[in-house]
Amino acid sequence: MMTCRIATFLLCCLGSLAFANEAVQREGEEFEVYQKRLHQYFEHNKSWVREADKELEIAAVLPFERKPPDSCPEQERIGLLMFHGLSDSPFALRDPAAALAQRCVTTRVMLLPGHGTKAEALLEVTRDDWRDAVNQAVVSFSKEVDSLYLGGFSTGGALVTEYAWEHPDQVSGVLLFSPLFKINSGIDWLSPWLAPFVDWLDHYPSDDYGKYASIPVPAIAEAYQLAKEVKQTVLKEQRTIPVLLALSEEDATVDSEVTMAVFDQAMKATLGSQMVLYSTTRPDSEDESLKVVNTDLPDDRIFGLSHMSIHGSPNNPYYGKQGSYRVCGWYQENQAAYDQCRQSKDNWYGERSDELSAKSAHAARLSWNPFFDDLMDQAATFMHSVKAP
């Protein structure tokens, strides 16, 4: 029995390590070749929500790029390279990639190792695998643009911040959507201690083809360590890299207070740096670097923006206001509540909280930003007008 368990463990490790290598764009590899190679890997190694929709599900998790329209003026080529969060996929960043391409920015969204196939692939992937993916992607993309910006959501935000701080001469600026500088938990420090002994706190099959339903403890531990290391780097090393940071004060996944403190201490002083803070309670700010947006919106049945909604368009056909998928993962242990959340025609949306639950016992997680277009306008202006020293 012990021999069997060891063999199974070794096979799992080898499979995860193999995908870590597959997910990284290789030196000198053309982007289109990289996409085709990953497509072939997904065909044989991906878990499906609906096997009949294989091509749809592969397309959702493949790295992709969007080019500006021909109507954009011929000038310096501005490029934005973006990375998704833990348990997500490139699908999470489709909306900002498309919106910013229409605003004359070349965008490319990459895949982090361990993502896009099945949650078990995250069991043996490390933060250094993610860092390697960022490094290789920057090397490739930077050859195709004149001015390089890095963007990231959640864990991807931590990764691109670290890269920018370690290579300040290569990066013109950074765009951060709900970046991870600390997990929003008082016991997140326990994850590295649990990781050698516990694989899962919960483990559900996903009915969302854009992301995993569960995250293994070892991956949470890697994200915890990454956030800790990036925060230390940013607070220790002074840089003059402009940053546009957008987050929700009600974020239940990352600690928004820590994020705001990192911005104030390490980013705010740089000319051009800006923060957009979505909040249900905070008054308008007189600080020119801080824009506060009220997100207590009873007419829209919205109370607060969620971690995942900051960069989502209301018009997204899957996650948007009239989209085909409603995010109800909070209720996975209660099928009746889950079904109510998915089906209710007059549901409320937001980030999980007692206040939201008081408005609806089966409220859904908000997956779009009602102020998305305003944020994209601000992001485009940021990249077209701000230059790092």
Automatic annotation (TrEMBL):
Molecular function per GO: hydrolase activity
Domain Serine aminopeptidase S33 residues, every copy: 80-264
Signal sequence region: 1-20
The UniProt record lists the keyword Signal: yes
Pfam families for the chain: Hydrolase_4
Keywords: Hydrolase, Signal
KW Repressor (keyword) present: no
Coiled-coil annotated residue ranges, if any: none
Record's protein name: Alpha/beta hydrolase
Organism: Rhodanobacter aciditrophus
